[in-house]
Specification:
Largest sheet of chain A: 6 strands, mixed
Oligomer: heterodimer
Number of strands of chain B: 2
Strand content of chain B: under 5%
Strand order of the largest sheet of chain A: 5-6-7-3-8-9
Distance between the termini of chain B: 28 Å
Number of domains of chain B: 1
Structural class of chain B: mainly alpha
Helix content of chain B: over 70%
Structural class of chain A: alpha/beta
Number of helices of chain B: 12
Order of helices and strands of chain A: EHEEHEHEHHHEHEHEEHEEEHEH
Distance between the termini of chain A: 41 Å
Shape of chain B: globular
Radius of gyration of chain B: 21 Å
Order of helices and strands of chain B: HHHEEHHHHHHHHH
CATH topology of one domain in chain A: Rossmann fold
CATH class of one domain in chain A: Alpha Beta
Helix content of chain A: 25-40%
Strand content of chain A: 25-35%
Chain lengths: 350, 283
């Protein structure tokens, strides 16, 4: 069971033809007769496999192709080229047997009835997914406990906060014990407490039911806490596939130092920092620096010897930043993003 | 996880039915959330009836005739009440716009992800809306029909009564699949409110809701006969008015059923093509 391949994507490719709208009146008139299209290679030959029970983080800057890939795996989008099997099915054929075994959480208002308490949507789920009543009760209890939302399932969804609604979406996604869950930014815009509860719940379900999880996220914390493996995608191509520590070591060459000095007067001036040290913030007595990883300990030793410090923290830069490093060091050949004039198709662009 | 069930087995059919029954029950409880709003809106929809009756009174008085194309004033009132009843079954407020919104906002994707069919789901929801509506509208309808009792024909025979009910149920299905097909145009066009507005006018006129179709000039009447809209209001009304023979009624029911079948096919084709386009372009 653990060795079973749940997702098998090979050369998955998705191109979009985007209508180029130019500014101005004459450009608009010209656009009536001759339309210019730009070819966007949202996903460009992506190949990877995910085994049963894995939690994989799918990372990349905005527009890298993460969501497009998830949509193809969920069967919402046909690929331009390539092939994929998910749980043994071709996702875009959308067999009912396939639909019963997976879930996709993408934004909110996917499955909940806005004006009703979430429990009514869940009971509807029980019928749609043909969940045996005993299993339904047990999983509902497990999920509401893990997410700490016991009473809220009896309150109309529209009265819930963003975080609470997201938790309800997750309960809806996990109730039928899917073998695969695809999550697009499950913690976007949530506070730390809600985020922690959600991560904990995902981990529990992965352990208890062996649910395979593929998630996209911008938050380092999500990925750090959950994923043994990450796939970094940039400009539609996979640029890294492996352990999390590997990406930090390979691409995260810096650390962020947050120094809280004892007094404003006792704070070194901005000119103190030289060489490769970058000042991110200078608000005495607080200073935030970006330092190359191998220089951190030497710098700290020097500081502690000469200055009085109340607090020090050493952090990895935000994942976004590391990803940006990945982005710049693995920049694709520019011609693939170049605009292209394509003859208008009969069915128009998107 | 449930064991795979052979398609077509009785358990599968049973579970499919219980799926849509669950949607129905959920939709009913959703309707009751806004019961006060709904109650007031339902009652207000009865207000135009009084003005329409007064208008016809003025028309007959102005013409100086007691009969127009076979309709006496009493017949017109009765006709109008029965078309109102027909519309109570066939009108689908918000259905096409709702589908268009789901397409535009992308929430339609849940029907691609969950094991449920979009049209079946919407039909169950609409049945729920109608049931709650009849529950509330029953009282004003009874009051109205009692007040206008002297204008109405006597009780129909059981056979005609059954035909009348069948005509109303078919009018409901026709209205549903027609409006659902319109909504699915949103797969191709971003904005369909213009189309819907025009269709609303066409529907109001050719369904016979505005005036009895016999009063139209013959050329326009020929167009009306060729369109499905008359089966939304005019045809059920004529069944209840008892002015046509049973043969005409039965033939009418057959044509009405054929239109329903045609609209089911059309909406299915539009849904399949639309989803194909949707998954090819946006997702």
């Amino acid at each position: 069971m653990r060795d079973e391949t749940v997702i098998d994507a090979e050369g998955l490719t998705r191109h979009f033809k985007v209508y180029r709208k130019r500014a101005g009146f004459w450009a608009a008139v010209r656009g009536l007769f001759r339309r210019e299209y730009r070819l966007v290679r949202a996903v460009d030959g992506v190949s990877f496999q995910v085994r049963a029970g894995e939690i994989v983080g799918f990372l990349g800057p905005n527009g890298a192709g993460k969501t497009t890939t998830l949509k193809m795996l969920a069967g919402l989008l046909y690929p331009t080229a390539g092939r994929a099997t998910v749980l043994g099915f071709v996702p875009w054929e959308r067999h009912n047997a396939f639909r019963r075994q997976f879930a996709l959480v993408m934004g909110q208002r996917n499955q909940l009835w806005w004006d009703l308490p979430a429990i009514e949507s869940f009971q509807l789920h029980r019928e749609l997914y043909e969940i045996p009543p005993g299993d339904f009760q047990q999983r509902l209890r497990e999920l509401t406990e893990a997410l700490q939302v016991g009473k809220l399932i009896h309150q109309p969804v529209r009265e819930l906060s963003l975080g609470e609604r997201m938790k309800m979406e997750l309960i809806g996604a996990f109730l039928h014990a899917p073998r695969l869950v695809l999550l697009d930014e499950p913690t976007l815009g949530l506070d730390v407490v809600a985020q922690a509860a959600i991560l904990d719940c995902l981990r529990q379900f992965n352990r208890r039911y062996g649910t395979t999880i593929l998630l996209t996220s911008h938050y380092m914390r999500d990925v750090e806490e959950l994923c043994q493996r990450i796939i970094v995608i940039n400009a539609g191509r996979i640029v890294y596939d492996g352990g999390l520590q590997g990406v930090v070591e390979r691409f995260g060459r810096h650390k962020v130092l947050r120094l809280q000095f004892h007094t404003a007067a006792g704070t070194p001036g901005p000119e103190t920092w030289n060489g490769s040290i970058e000042v991110l913030e200078h608000r005495p007595p607080l200073v935030k620096l970006r330092v190359e990883r191998d220089q951190v300990s030497r710098l700290l030793q020097g500081l502690l010897a000469h200055w009085q410090l109340d607090d020090i923290s050493v952090e990895d830069p935000p994942l976004e930043e590391i990803i940006t490093d990945v982005f710049t060091t693995t920049a694709p050949p520019t011609e693939s993003r170049e605009p292209q004039t394509v003859r208008p198709a009969a069915d128009g662009g998107h | 996880m449930s064991a795979p069930i052979a398609p077509g087995s009785s358990r599968r059919r049973l579970s499919r039915w219980s799926k849509y029954r669950a949607v129905l029950v959920t939709a009913i409880s959703e309707r009751f959330v806004y019961r006060t709003d709904f109650f007031i809106a339902t009652l207000l929809r009865f207000a135009p009836i009084a003005t329409t009756i007064l208008l016809w009174q003025a028309v007959f008085a102005g013409s100086g005739r007691s009969e127009l194309a076979g309709y006496r004033f009493e017949d017109v009132v009765a006709y109008y009440l029965f078309t109102t009843l027909g519309r109570a079954f066939s009108s689908m407020p918000g259905l096409a716009m709702g589908i268009a919104r789901e397409i535009r906002e992308g929430t339609i994707r849940r029907f691609l992800l969950q094991p449920i069919d979009l049209l079946g789901y919407l039909l169950a929801c609409r049945v729920a809306h109608k049931l709650v509506y009849y529950l509330i509208a029953a009282v004003p309808f009874v009051v109205l029909f009692t007040l206008c009792g002297s204008y109405l024909p006597g009780w129909p025979t059981p056979g005609r009564f059954a035909c009348g009910i069948a005509a109303l149920v078919l009018a409901f299905l026709l209205g549903f699949y027609l409006e659902a097909s319109l909504g699915m145009l949103a797969f191709w066009f971003l904005e369909i409110s213009g189309v819907l507005y025009i269709m609303m006018g066409v529907n109001y006129f050719f369904s016979g809701h505005m005036i009895p179709l016999e009063l139209l000039p013959s050329a326009v009447r020929a167009v009306a006969w060729a369109l499905p809209f008359q089966y939304l209001a005019y045809f059920p009304a004529t069944v209840w008015l008892q002015k046509t023979s049973m043969e005409t009624v039965l033939a009418g029911l057959l044509v009405q059923a054929a239109w329903v079948a045609a609209m089911i096919c059309l909406s299915r084709i539009l849904l399949r093509r639309g989803l194909r386009r949707y998954t090819a372009f946006g997702g």
